[in-house]
Amino acid sequence: MAEEGAVQGSVRVDAWIWAVRLAKTRSLAASACRAGHVRVNGERAKPASPVRPGDEVRVRQPGRERIVVVKRLLRKRVGPPVAAECFIDNSPPPPPREEAIAVPVRDRGTGRPTKRDRREMERLRGAR
Fold it and tell me: Which keywords does UniProt give here (predicted)?
């Protein structure tokens, strides 16, 4: 007997990405597809594109790209341990937290940055 939520055939890529917890909500998964951040077997995927076992799904997320191979199809969202069994993760390891972009923190109550403050922040970030 098939497990709860398991499906035969194919499933929409946005529903599968949401079900295996690569996206927080179904609408975010669909938006990522429409924006071109999702590829199935190297091709840009629309939200309704079918995904089947054995397909390679690439999801671009802030700061990294997730590369997964579909093992099992799901239509409904499942818990993290079950979701981890539904794909093979071939993603490169995430960058260490120290290398993550440091966001400058302003003191509370200092108000909006002045033009001079903004230019100093850009200079420190190397934007100009």
Answer: DNA-binding, RNA-binding
